[in-house]
Each structure stands twice: as C-alpha cells, then as structure tokens.
Amino acid sequence: MLVSIGSTNPTKINAVKSALQIIGLEYDLVAVSVSSGVSNQPFCDETFVGARNRAIRSLLEAHADLGIGIEGGICVEKNRLVAFAVVYAVNKNGKENFAKSASFTLPAKIAELIYRGIELGSATDLAFSTHDSKHKSGAVGILTKYIDRTRLYVDPVIMALYPFYNSID
User: Fold this and answer.
1) Which of 10, 138, 157, 161 lies at a CB distance of 3.0 to 4.6 Å from 19, suitable for a disulfide?
2) Number of domains, the chain
C-alpha cells in the first residue's frame, strides 16, 4: 500500500511510520510537500481544514492509496491558549477519518508572542532560545520534557487510521 503524508517534517514522518508499524500495516511511505491552505498558525477549526487539505493534496500528488495530513493548531479554552494537532486520513476511494491529539496549555510568554502574530514554533524558539524546535521536540517537548511532537502525533494517527484497518462499520 502506498501511503502519502502531506509534509516533509521529520517529526510528522516519524509519527506516521511509528503508527503504521504499531498497527502492522505493510506500506511504502512518501512524504510530499503540500500547502495546508490555511494560515501558518491555524486557530481552532482551521486546524482541521489544514490537516484534511494536506491529506487530500498528498494523496493526489503521490497517486497514493492513503493520504495522511497532520496539522498543529491552537485554540482558546478556559481562557488559556491551548496547542493540539489534528490528523486526517483519506483513501483513494474518498473514505475519510480524523482524530485530535492530546492538548496542552501554553505558558504566557509563548501565548503573548502568538497573539502578536508569531507561529508557535517560532514563538517557542524565541521564548526558550532554541532553534527549529518544530522540526524537533516542539513546544510540547520543551514544556513536558517527556513527550515530543512525534509521540504526541502517533496516537491520533492510529485513531485516524482505524477505519482503514479495522472494519467495524
């Protein structure tokens, strides 16, 4: 089975590889650089749109059997800025499913930068004097010290894929 992912970000690619190995799916994976079609820092429902766009665009560009899109986003919950990810899976027959990752609150110094228009990865780098954190452990890794972006994404990839490997319908 040819599986495409709508990103060349190593953390997203590794999450998809791990998820596919966990569920025991035989696959060839191709990473495709595609536009999410949403802002650089998606808010709330825009995150779902970006993940779906990435899945569909990668599926079409790679002529894959299954396309996966992962999009990180932020939203306000209980007066706090919260980060999360959305994973979409779409097959060549048009069947779709999605899942959302665990979410985590962002500290005030990152939230202030985001409210000034800076994307989460760049805000994290500025707040913690790091470089290119979104291609590494990300804000979640820096904040928790135990859960990096790859780990955060693995479970929602599995959850988004269940209709494609577990025929329960």
Assistant:
1) 157
2) 1
Q: What is the pLDDT of residues 12-41, one digit of tens each?
A: 999 999 999 999 999 999 999 999 999 999
pLDDT tens-place string over residues 43-75? 999 999 999 999 999 999 999 999 999 999 999
For residue 79, the domain's CATH number is 3.90.950.10
Q: Against a cut of 0.85, is the pTM above it?
A: yes
Known binding-site residue numbers: 7-12
Residue 122 lies in a domain: no
| Host domain of residue 71 | 2-104+148-165
Q: What is the per-residue DSSP string for the chain?
A: -EEEES---HHHHHHHHHHHHHHT---EEEE-----SS-SS-BTTHHHHHHHHHHHHHHHHHT-SEEEEEEEEEEEETTEEEEEEEEEEEETTS-EEEEE---EEPPHHHHHHHHTT--HHHHHHHHHT-SSGGGTTHHHHHHHSS--HHHHHHHHHHHHHHHHH----
73 within domain boundaries: yes
